[in-house]
Every structure is written in C-alpha cells, then in structure tokens.
Amino acid sequence: MKKNLISIKDLTKNEIIELFKFAKILKKNPLSKANSLKGKTLALVFQKPSNRTRVSFEVGMFQLGGKAIYLGPDEVKLGVRESVKDVARVLGRYVNGIVARTFKHDDVVDLAKFSWSPVINGLSDLLHPCQGLSDLFTIEEHFGKKKIKIAFVGDGNNVLNSLLVGSSALGRDIYFSTPKGCEPDKAVLSEARKCADKNKSIIQKVDDPKECVKDADIIYTDVWVSMGKESKKEERLKLFNGYQVNKDLVSNAKEDALIMHCLPAHRGEEIDDEVLDSKNSIVYEQAENRLHVQKAILLMLLGG
Ligand code: CP
Ligand code: NVA
Question: Suppose 99 and one of 24, 122, 179, 273 were both cysteines; which one would form an S-S bond, judging by CB atoms 3.0 to 4.6 Å apart?
C-alpha cells in the first residue's frame, strides 16, 4: 500500500529513527543510493514560492537517479483550472510521487486521498512536516538523544505545529511563546500533548518570551507573516512586540544555545542580523539537512 507524508504523525517513532539513520548515510555519501529511484518521477505541485523545498527535492531526485517535474502556481492551478480530485487522479497515473505546497491543508489531504502515488506535504497553511523532520534530525546531530530544552518564540504557524508533532513523537521537550491570537493549531496541539504524555516529554506554553527561552539549549523562530498572510502584515507585526529573537532575548538562554530558523527569514522582524549571523546560528545546516532527510523520505515512500 502507498504511504503518504501529510503530517509527521504518519510515521511511527521507529520509522522516524530509520529515516534519520538513512539521512545520516546519505549526508556522508550523497551518491550512495545513486540509482535507487532510476526511472521514477516526482511532481512538485506548488501554489507558493520556494527555495529550499523545491531545490532540495529536485536535487534529491536527481541524486537518486530519478526526475522531478516542477509545476508552479500558473500551471496546474489546483482547484481552479481543475478540481483537486482530478489533478490527483491524473498526476497519480503519470508520476511515482507528488510533493504539494498548498494554502489549504485539505488540498494536500485530498491529493493524497485521490492519487495512486504517494503524496508528500511540502508545506500547507497548517503543517510543514519535511521541515519538522529535518530540524529534529539537525537537533539529533548536535545533541544525540540527550534531554534538552527547545524554545520556540514567535508565530504559532505551520512550522511550530510540525515541531510540536515531531518533538512529541520523539519524546523531546518543547516550550513555546506565542502572542494572543497566534497560538498553534488547537487540534494539532491537543494531539501532540497526548503523544508527549505517552512519551513522557513536555509541551509547555509560556507567555513571557524571556521566561520561555530561560536555560534553553535551542531557540527557534520563524516569520511573523507567513506566505498567504501578507495582506495582514501591518496588523500582525504589532502583535509581536517583545518576541524578536535578538541578543537581549538570547541572553536568557544557555550561553551556548543554538539558534534555529527554517528560513526564509525576515531579518529585522522575528530575528535580527546579529543573532542570525552569530556563531551559534545553525540555520544553514538546517537548510542543508532538508536535502539529506528528504532523500531518505523519497527512498522510504517511492523506493518500493
Ligand atoms: N524552509 C522552507 O521550506 O523554505 P522554502 O519556502 O524556500 O522552501
Ligand atoms: N511559516 C512560513 C514557513 C516558510 C518555510 C510560511 O508558511 O511562509
């Protein structure tokens, strides 16, 4: 049966562990599985712009011996030129996998429902599982299985939602500070909390960003204005007073706390140059790891 990756919860803990083992091998030797996806194709159906997700999937398919076909916002016109159902049914017959970047989360869910081929969520308004997985891989590279404190400060968006799902699945402790009205998705949070209870890990909302990052090993942030929310920029920016990741905020964390950001960053908004470019910032490592982890995902879902 085909397997999709719509949310990190589609993977068991053991599958995530396997995925990370594979990613580690691929990182060491990028061409070690050079012919594994020979003759296979991957469609990238993207309604939003992308640098990391698009390029890492395209490069990843090439390095595994397959081919990626990019279909931008003006080509497929998901749900406008054609229903999501029909796009899924047709594409699913041509290609061996689909990566979808959509506004509505339900569109990725429907693509998966109606496509014969596996569907990977390459970011929806609700979740960003490829990012979450690759960030947890990066965290494991730095800390192994050690108990650490991850502190997320900023908008309770798709990236935080996926970090909550992934952290709880792996039993990692995560604290978050989000302004009123910008909390993570209620249903995602409640499910992640149940999973965290089972795995004896902590998910904790902390109102004060300074308190949230206190003694943290990692400070993570993401943009305050996600793709699709640009028209609300002015009013949104006002909500985040005190939430910028800058030297002052970082001084509350452990001295060697690592700085994470999924990128793209809006420098001067959620994070300043000094912190983003500091020696403790691992944002480009995070970006690189998208390639290695997604290659492992492709092998798991398309490899047969
Ligand atoms: N982090 C991330 O998904 O980047 P892109 O939007 O550039 O793909
Ligand atoms: N939260 C951001 C992530 C970009 C990778 C967005 O959805 O625009």
Answer: 122
